[in-house]
Amino acid sequence: MLVLTRKVGETIWIDEEIEIVITEVKGDQVKVGIRAPRHVDIIRGELRKDISDSNTEAVVKDLSLFDKLK
């Protein structure tokens, strides 16, 4: 993991397409802006975990329905 220190208004680039901008720092919160092409999916970490958990739950339900059909 790369750890960087940035001030408000400073940026971080990922490859040639993605720019991360520090827009505000207030207490222990940091607001981050992200400029990226539309084809790049951007999602908060906690939502990614929720989606993964939901997908796992759906597969388990599907398997239990499949077992009932046997």
Summarize the structure in words.
By secondary structure, the protein is α+β, with helices and mostly antiparallel strands. The protein has 2 domains: 1-39, no CATH class; 41-70. The protein is 36% helix and 29% strand. The chain has one helix spanning 45-69, and strands at 11-14, 18-26, 29-35. A 3-stranded antiparallel sheet has the order 1-2-3, with no helix packed on it. The longest helix is centred in the C-terminal third of the chain and has 25 residues, at 45-69.
Topology:
Blueprint: E1 11-14, E2 18-26, E3 29-35, H1 45-69
Structural class: alpha+beta
Please give the order of strands in the largest beta sheet: 1-2-3
Low confidence ranges: none
- Our count of domains comes out at 2
So what's the overall shape? elongated
Assembly type of the chains comes to single chain
Count of extended strands: 3
Average pLDDT confidence is 86
Count, helices: 1
Which terms would index this structure?
CsrA_sf, RNA-binding, repressor, alpha+beta, 3 strands, single chain, 70 residues, bacterial flagellum biogenesis, CsrA
